[in-house]
Every structure is written in C-alpha cells, then in structure tokens.
Design brief:
The structure holds three protein chains of three kinds. Chain A is 48% helix and 19% strand. By secondary structure, chain A is α/β, with parallel strands linked by helices. Chain A has two domains: 36-155 and 293-362, 3-Layer(aba) Sandwich (Rossmann fold); 157-284, Response regulator (Rossmann fold). By secondary structure, chain C is mainly α. Helix content of chain C is 68%, strand content 2%. The chains are: A alpha/beta, B mainly alpha, C mainly alpha.
Chain lengths: 392, 318, 427
C-alpha cells in the first residue's frame, strides 16, 4: 500500500510539473527584433474530418502573410500568423475566440470554415472588437445578425443557390431535379435555396434527401434518385461526399447532369470520382485563376512556395488575409505609423472598397457581405476544371 | 409505387454488400469481447489502417507497372494478405502495450486506452498520408470495374468479390474456432480463464491469437471496403466501427454466427430505410432517419431478447 | 486490518503552510505577470492541493471558497479566455459528476449521456429564440433573460424525463448491451434534433439556433464569461453537495449495491426499477441544468455539439478521474477539459512559435497546431496504464476490496468475491 501512495503522489507531482512546464513555455512571447509584434489569426478545423479544408485556409492565409512580411517589417511591424484549430466544434471555436480576444497582439482573424462555429465565435469577436474576415462561411444568418466585426468575401447561399438553380433551368434546360444534401448547415442551407428557386421556376423537385457525412456508402439514397431519372441531381455539400455520390450514381447508370456548389470546387473531386467526374457542373464564388497570365504565375509561385497546388479554400484564405493586411496597413497609416488599435483595424477593414484580391474584388456593404461576390459556373472536362462563365 | 418495387432488388444487393462488411468487422469485436469482455474501441481504426495498407499496396504495384497484365485476383490477394499480416501484428502490438497491463484493473479502464489508441492511429495515418501524398483522402485503383446485369438488378463485380471474400473468411474462421486445437483453446479461455489456464492452456497466447485473427479480419475488410467504395480517409473507422459493434450486439455479442447475421441484417435495414423512408412518408422523414430506424430495431430486439438474436441467455449464479 | 486503517486516514496530507505558500505564489505570479498561463493553472490546481491539505474540513472549505470565489475572479477576471476555460471546466465537472452517478455509483455504462445535455440546451435554446414561434402561435418568443433562471429547473426536469425514458428499456438489458442501447439512444436523439426542421420546424435542424437570449437579473444582463463563471460555480456547488449527500444516503448505497451484485441487492429488498431509474434521472438532470447554461453561454447551439464523441469524452473524464470517486471525477473533468481547451492549445502555439522562429523545423503537414488530438490520445493511454484506478480512486471501493481481499475465504473466489477480484463468474 505504501508503494501505491508514493505512486499517487508521484503522479500528481508529475501532472503538476508537466502542466506547469507546458504552460510556462506557452507564457513568454517576447522577441528581441525591435519590431512590434502583430498577430493575425486563422481559425479553421486543423484536425478531424474537415482538416484538409481547414489546412488549406491556413496555408493560403499564411502564404499571403509571408508575401507581405518584409513590407510590414519596413513599417516597423513583425506580422505573425497565429493559427488555431477550431476542430469544427463550436465549443472549441468559442474558446479559441476568447484566447484571441484576450491576446492584445491579435488584430484580426481569418475564419471560420463551419458557419455553426463562426456564429458563436463572432459573438466573442464582437465583444472584443476583433475583426473577422470569413473565407468560406456562406450561411445567410452569419451577417444577418448585425455584428460589426463580421465580414466575408464569399457569396452567400441565397446568392449562390438561386444562381445555380437558374443556370440549371435556363442554360441547361432541366425540367426535373433531385436534391441531395449533407445535413450540415452549409449543405442544407444551399440545398434549401436551390430547391426554393427550382420550385419558383417550375422545375419539378422529385426528391430532397439528406445523407450522413463521413459514411462512404450512399447507395440507398442514390437508388432512390436514379430510379426517378431526374434531369439533374444537385448536391449540397463537400467534395468528399460529392465525389462518392457522383461515382456511385454513374455506376448505377445515371445519365443526367450532376451539379453542386462551391463545396465540390476542388481538384480532389476528380481524384475521388475518377472518370465519373466528367461533365460535373458546379458553381463557385472564386473567379478562375488559370484564365490570366497573372493568375497562372500566382498559382505556380504558390505551388513552389508551399509544395501544394492552390485549392479553392486556400485561395479564399489567401484573399481574406490580403483584405485583412490591407486594412491593417490603412489603419497603421491613419494612426501615424504606430500600431493601430483593434477598433481602428476593424474600421479600416470595414471600409475596404474596390480591393482587388487575387480572385475576387472586395467591397464590404453595411452587413459585412462582399458586394462583388459573384457566382461563376465551372465544369469538369477531361478531369480538369474548366471555366464556363459568370452566372447571371 | 411501381417505381419503388423496381429498385427493391438493387436496394437489397447494396444492403447485403454493406452488411457483409459490417459482419466481418463485427467478428473482430465479438471475438475480443467473447474472451476479454471488453469493447475494443480501437478495432474500427484497425479496419481503417487495413484499408490504407491495402490501397497503398495496390497503388505501389500500380506505380511500378505491376498491375498491367496481372490477374486482378492475385493483386487483390496480395493486398489482402499484406494488409492482414500488418494489421494482425498491429492488433497484437496494441494488446501487448495498451491492454494487457490493464487486464486486472477495473473493467472500464481498457476502454480509455482503447480510445487513446484510436486517436493515435487516426492521426498517425493522417500524418503519414499527408507527408507521403499531401492529402489524406486516398483513392486506389479499382481492380474489378465490371458489373453483372441480372435484369432486375445490377451487381457490381466488386460487390460480389466483397460478399464472396467475406463468406470465405467467415467459413475459415468458424472452422478454425470449432475444429482446431487453438480454436478450442480460445473457446475454453472464453468460458473460464482460470480453469483454462489450469488445463495447461497458455491464456496470454490465446488472447494474442484472438487479437491477431480479429485484427487481420478487420484489416481484410478495410481492403474490401476501399475496393468497393474507392475512397478512404483516416476517419472511416469510427462510423463503421460503431455500426459493426451494433451489429455484433444485435446478433448476440461473443457469438460468431450472431455477428454475421447481425451485420447483414443491419446493412439491409439501413439500405431499405435509406431508399424508402422518403417516398413512403412523402418527404416528411427522409433517408437521414435510417440510423434512427436501425438503432430503434436494435433496442426493440434487445428488449424482447436481451442477449441478442443468437446470444445465449446467461444464467446468473448467486 | 492495518492497511485498512491506513486507507481510512488521509494519504500523506500536505502541510497547511505549503498549501498557503502555493496559493500565494500563484496569486502573486498571476498578479505580476498578468497573462501567465502557469500561474492560472497553478491556481486551479490549488483546489486539488487544498483537498489534500492537513487541516480541518471547515478551514479547507474556506480556503477553497477563497480561491474560487475571490482570488480567481479577482486576478483572472480581466482575461476573458481564462474565465472561459474556467467556465468550461465547470460545465464538464457538473456533467461528469452526473455521469458518475450512473456509471460510477450504479455501474450502468452509459454511452449516450450527451443526449441529456442536448435536451437541456435545446429546452432553453428553442424558447429563448424566435424559434418557438414556428410551432406556437402568438408572437411570444424569444423569452426574456429573466426566464433563464426558471429554465435551469425546466432543463433539469426535461433531462430527467429523458433519463427515465432511456432508463425504461435498460431494466431488461444488462452489462455491455446497455452500452449499445444508450449509444443508440444518444444517436437517435442527435439525429432527431438534426432533422426536426420538417415536417414541423422545432429545432431548426442543422442550421442551429442562434442569438439565444443571455440570462439577466433585475435589468442586468449576464453575457460575459466572467458572469457564467459564477453561475457555473453556484451550480457546481449544488451538484457536489447533492453528490455527497446521495453517496452516503440509502439511495446511494442501493446504487452501489446494484453495481456490485444485482441479484444480491434484489434479494436484500432493493427495487431494481426504482433504483436504476433514479440513477438515470438524477444523472441526467445535472446534464440538463448545465445544458441550459451552455446554450446561454454559447448563444448558439446546433447538433454538432452533441455527438457520440462528446459522450465518450465525458465518460473518459469519469473513468480517468476514478469512477465512483467524487474528488476523482472532478479532477478528471478538470484535467481533460484543461488539456483540451487550454494546455494542448498553448503547447501547439508554443511549438508553432518555435517553428516560425526557425528553432524547430517541421514540414507544414506536421504543423503543431494539428497535433492536439494525437497528444491527447497518447496522454489517455499513459493515464490508463499508469493510473488504472483513476487519478483519485474511489475510497469506498478500495476499502471494500481491501477488506474482502484480506478475508480468510478470499482465495476461493466465489460469488461476489469472484466478481470483485476481477475473475469471471462461472455459470
């Protein structure tokens, strides 16, 4: 028994000392470069099933920050990325948000991926006047609650959904549709919008079904869809599930059009779906990089620097960070070259007007939505994403 | 309505394919539970590791040009065997490090280390794939692209392969357990560890063997899964593991036949409710309720037969 | 019997002076350094040290109260992140204590506990937003913040009803079959909450409920982490008090009796039905109350907060801390929550800084910010291996087993003895 007691004490001591050590390390952040430290955070899921998307956002933002690091050093600032893992969990997101708000060096946030995480976290940002620029939240509610700190550069579901539905009807001439969504805030939100527009335009909706994210066998729902032989199957969700659904639908002999939103805008869709990806149509809020010489060069540079091809979400992350950095620069200028306060950065970012990002032009309206957020149509041809045009 | 009947054979075929996969994974849960009375939570992750190893083997063979001209059955067999060997050893290693030291501690404690092992395996695979291929979704080459058209339904060849392989594995397993010396030793240990050890059965070795077989079965299912659905990620083990465990309980945990029946039943129930709930309720309750149906049936079965469909009622001794 | 008496005594208590010095040192450090995580964690841990201090009960309680009610809010109250961490710890401590009644006391393995948490959260969430207008006519909602206090009781009752609902089938199902029934129940509840936006929109489905009214009292709105810290503290006080009362009550002993041997307990005249149902209802009600607080604190809830992983997480807290041991479960919940919301984060931020400064070179695929779950997994394995009975094992269990092991007939290992000493019951 005496041994047991010693072990108890030893273990307690061990926890104590390790936790102290760990936290002691986390404590100090002073650096001796003479520059004022400014931290710009990213909040995205870096672990769990959405980790690759969250990581793309982080990498894109990091790339944008690295590009301007030297420029800011000349202004007397040491800008650093402060990446946080929100795990796609509202609780973690809020805790991270509190961490960011309580750290005086943090002047802006790029995030989130999940609208369900963004909404409660933005309540905290609002209290701390910390500006947030969202690269990926398309949920309508986010900017409708009137929070000053909330901004997004991407299009809302109620812009993208109707645009997609109208394109399907007017350009592709579909008369019947079957909608599948992934039962997440994003997927269902988009699906609802598309469904509403279809019903308004007289396209017959043959079915509206949800699936479970993370499963790989969607044959049950697909059997139902294929048996009704709709002109178009629209999927509201992410490419991981979208790729499997298009593949399994084609295997079951579906011949019609397959369509999705910006969630399936990824080269990985082709990897997952294989040959079945041919002819998949999707809407996206990012303009095409590869159309222009500048864009091509950017993509090549990005790949060289990060050893990764630019993904949609890294592109959004990049532009969000650029908007933030632009605001920061303006705020510092207005503050006489001194480190601006959060309120000043917020004001400067909110005033962003006609800022030309790599992929989208940005002007925020009163709510924090991007006026220039446009919807584009793309199509997979020969396994490549091909730009079709702007959706009207 | 006519439309709905038309797809019924197809729905059943898909349900059976999924069900047989549940069944083989459920075997792993059931075997470990039968012997140690312990829910091996990390079994789903072993399945996932198996899927990755099998797919990597095929990808490497493909990259070396080995898949051209090679009989797809031999390729599949190679992937299966390599994956089974590695996952079997992984299972034994996990047992040795994370479970054996806990054999005499309170019953729920191994659950904690099993959850820890799950997290560890998920992230290790994820990092390995991220370093190796830069993405953690992995899509392997498809060995059997064809399908069998039998008029009322189309059976993809790969689904047939899944079902046949699963049945072969189960037959071999039940022969092993019932007829061989080691199988009998396993059953003896499941009955009573201390008596078995008195009968000169090496309990540690039997438990090791159980993990070896259970894990390699899990690994084999992983390969089949990857072949059937094409794409895998490090998180497939969680949902499938949960379903397979449900299947094991439905059939009667600790019982090999029960695991098979439970798995197939669960697969078919899911497939049926996914395809028919929406049309039957006019869209009020869609296919997203399929898990609700599956779990409700499980609860109902357990209410009327608390030991599962094939489980033996355990009489309690006072 | 010597060991028996040894166990009754406190395990090598810490001298009072040392405890005071520790508290003083951490307080001063937090005061001087402001944002020092070390001293904040040190302060939280001081509650544990106080528990082991060589002093009488009242003095220890006074010290604990001083730390929790005065020192922490006074020194860390300005930092909303620390208050958030402390509030989260409180929420999980309360839930873990509730689950401890089901798992630790009554020995019923519950893998769907988060359903009760969800029930409480949604009970408040639906009526404290405009959501309830969807199915109740008359533009009555959202309710004002004053209703929050009433909803603490409503949440308790709703969760208790859920607990009884879950408890009913449980009477026929035993052992690990119970685990899967509760797992299924938890999943059913989550899926239904995720889908009840049609035919009638009750939960708003995956879109979740946003802008939940924060609590208010006589015109004062409580919306900061600082306020929730105190609300949670009050609730924990009641939960701990109820746990302590229950543990040694007739009911508590009945729970433990059915945990150790159902048949024997039954033959001693304990009603299985009542005992098990009260265990489920009591455990569930704690989760319901903190569910209401969680909803009010987050101001947004959606079904992703109530997954199976969450249930497993709470179970981990209970077993890791020491199933059946109240101080153990509190420590377990504190330890796991602190790791998840603070320490792992600080560690990865620190590693990230190292790699940015070029001291540590890691490829971007292995960025430290992604390592949190992996580290958590390793810690779980280590904790299970090195503290199999929990961080602070249940004293009663140790006493009982100690007594039985030293009993003359212990070697025969029959009936209850066989069960307690870890051998299988021969049937």
């Amino acid at each position: 028994m005496a041994k047991g007691k010693v072990a108890t004490r030893g273990f307690l001591a061990a926890i104590l000392s390790t936790s102290l050590l760990v936290s002691a390390c986390g404590g100090g952040t002073s650096q001796g470069s003479g520059l004022e430290v400014i931290k710009l955070a990213t909040q995205s899921p870096l672990s769990g099933a959405y980790a690759n998307i969250g990581d793309a956002i982080r990498q894109g933002a990091n790339y944008a920050l690295m590009e301007e690091k030297d420029e800011f050093a000349k202004l007397g600032f040491d800008i650093q990325l402060f990446p946080q893992d929100d795990q796609g969990d509202p609780k973690q997101g809020v805790a991270n948000a509190q961490l960011l708000v309580s750290n005086k060096d943090v002047l802006g946030v790029v995030g989130h991926y999940n609208t369900g995480v963004a909404i409660p976290s933005s309540v905290v940002y609002e209290k701390g006047s910390l500006v947030m620029v969202s690269p990926a939240n398309t949920g309508v509610d986010l900017t409708e609650e009137g929070k000053k700190t909330v901004h997004r550069i991407c299009a809302r579901d109620d812009a993208q959904g109707p645009a997609a539905a109208m394109y399907a009807k007017n350009t592709m001439g579909v008369k019947t549709a079957f909608l599948i969504h992934d039962k997440t805030a994003y997927g269902q939100g988009l699906g609802d919008q598309v469904k509403a527009q279809f019903e308004k335009d007289g396209v017959k909706v043959l079915g509206y079904e949800g699936i479970t994210v993370g499963e790989k066998d969607y044959s049950a729902v697909i059997n139902q869809a294929v048996s009704k032989n709709p002109d178009v199957i629209f999927f509201g969700g992410i490419y991981a599930e979208g790729g499997l659904i298009v593949k399994q639908a084609r295997e079951k002999g579906y011949k019609g059009i397959f369509m999705g939103g910006d969630g399936i805008d990824s080269s990985d869709l082709a990897n997952i779906a294989g040959a079945a990806v041919e002819g998949v149509v999707y809407t996206s809020v990012a303009g095409d990089v590869t159309q222009t010489e500048v864009g091509k060069k950017w993509a090549a540079d990005y790949e060289k620097a990060t050893q990764k091809k630019p993904e949609t979400y890294s592109v959004y992350g990049y532009d969000s960070m650029k908007v933030l950095l632009n605001g920061l620069k303006e705020a510092a200028k207005a503050n006489g070259g001194k480190k601006p306060s959060r309120e000043q950065v917020l004001e400067a970012v909110h005033k962003t007007k006609d800022f030309q990002g790599q992929f989208t032009k940005v002007t925020f309206n009163e709510k924090g939505d991007n006026q220039f957020a446009e919807v584009f149509i793309y199509k997979f041809e020969n396994g490549k994403q091909v730009f079709v045009g702007k959706a009207e | 309505m006519e439309n709905m009947l038309q797809i019924l054979p197809q729905v059943l075929v898909d349900g059976l394919t999924l069900g047989f996969m549940y069944a083989v994974v459920a075997l792993g849960y059931t075997m470990v539970y039968g012997i140690l009375e312990f829910i091996n939570f990390s079994h789903g992750e072993i399945f996932m590791v198996g899927a990755f190893i099998g797919t990597e083997v095929l990808l490497i063979m493909d990259a070396l040009g080995g898949l051209q001209g090679l009989n797809p059955f031999i390729a599949l067999l190679m992937a299966l065997v390599i994956s089974m060997i590695i996952t079997g050893m992984l299972g034994v290693g996990i047992e040795r490090v994370a479970y054996r030291p806990l054999r005499n501690s309170p019953r729920l404690v191994p659950l904690i280390s099993a959850i820890g092992v799950s997290f560890l395996l998920q992230d290790v695979v994820r990092f390995a794939e991220a370093l190796h291929r830069d993405a953690f979704y992995l899509t392997g080459p498809i060995l059997f692209p064809g399908k069998l058209d039998i008029g009322i339904a189309q059976i993809p060849t790969k689904a047939l392969i899944v079902i046949v392989t699963a049945i072969v594995l189960m037959i071999v397993l039940s022969f092993f357990i019932n007829k061989t010396k080691w199988g009998i030793a396993m059953r003896a240990v499941a009955q009573d560890q201390s008596t078995a050890s008195l009968m000169t059965i090496n309990v540690d070795k039997v438990i090791m063997l159980t993990f070896l077989i259970g894990s390699s079965l899990g690994g084999a299912t992983g390969v089949l899964f990857a072949q059937n659905y094409g794409t895998i990620d490090p998180y497939i083990g969680f949902i499938l593991g949960m379903k397979a465990f449900t299947a094991a309980v439905l059939g009667g945990i600790g019982n090999v036949r029960g695991a098979m029946v439970g798995g197939v039943l669960l697969g078919v129930i899911e497939s049926l409710s996914g395809a028919y709930l929406g049309p039957l309720t006019n869209g009020a309750f869609g296919g997203e309720y399929k898990d609700v149906i599956a779990f409700s049936i499980l609860i109902l079965v357990l209410l009327f037969k608390p030991e599962g469909l094939f489980g033996e009622a355990v009489k309690e001794k006072v | 019997m010597g060991t028996f008496r040894n166990l009754m005594a406190k395990e090598q208590p810490i001298p009072l002076l040392l405890t005071l010095a520790w508290i003083a040192a951490c307080s001063v450090a937090l005061w001087v350094l402001k944002d020092s995580v070390t001293s904040f964690v040190g302060l939280i841990l001081s509650v544990l040290i106080i528990y082991y201090t060589n002093a009488n009960k009242w003095l220890r309680m006074a010290l604990g109260g001083l730390v929790l009610l005065v020192i922490i809010p006074y020194l860390a109250g300005g930092n909303s992140y620390y208050m958030e961490v402390a509030t989260n710890i409180g929420i999980y401590v309360a839930m873990a204590l509730g689950l401890n009644i089901v798992v630790g006391f009554a020995g019923l393995l519950d893998l769907g506990y988060v359903a009760f948490f969800a029930a409480g959260a949604y009970a408040y969430g639906i009526f404290a937003t405009a959501q309830a207008n969807e199915f109740i006519p008359g533009d009555l909602f959202p309710l004002g913040g004053e209703w929050f206090w009433a909803f603490l009781i409503v949440g308790l009752l709703v969760a208790a009803v859920f607990g009884i609902l879950l408890g009913l089938p449980v009477l026929r199902v035993k052992g690990d079959y119970l685990a899967i029934v509760t797992l299924g129940f938890g999943e059913i509840v989550r899926i239904i909450f995720n889908n009840l936006d049609k035919p009638v929109n009750i939960t708003n489905g995956p879109q979740g409920l946003s802008s939940i009214t924060p609590p208010s009292l006589i015109g004062e709105t409580f919306s900061d982490a600082f306020h929730f810290y105190f609300i949670v503290l009050v609730v924990i006080f009641f939960v701990v008090w109820a746990n302590l009362k229950l543990e040694h009550s007739k009911l508590g002993r009945a729970w433990i009796a059915i945990r150790e041997d159902e048949l024997a307990a039954q033959s001693m005249g304990i009603s299985l039905l009542n005992t098990k149902l009260t265990a489920f209802a009591t455990g569930a009600s704690f989760a319901g109350v903190v569910g209401v607080i969680f909803a009010a604190k987050q101001t947004f809830i959606d079904p992703t907060s109530f997954t199976l992983m969450e249930s497993i997480g709470i179970l981990v807290m209970v077993i890791l801390g020491g199933s059946g041991s109240i101080p153990g479960v509190i420590l377990g919940a504190t330890f796991v929550t602190l790791l998840q919301v603070q320490l792992l984060k600080e560690l990865s931020n620190y590693l990230h800084e190292l790699s940015q400064a070029g001291i540590l070179s890691l490829p971007s695929q292995l960025d430290p910010s992604k390592l949190q779950r992996l580290v958590f997994g390793v810690l779980l394995i280590l904790a299970a291996l090195y503290r199999p009975n929990g961080l602070i094992p249940s004293r009663r269990k140790k006493e009982d087993i100690g007594a039985i092991k030293s009993h003359a007939h212990a070697e025969q290992k029959q009936g209850i003895l066989a069960k307690l000493t870890g051998r299988k019951n021969v049937s």
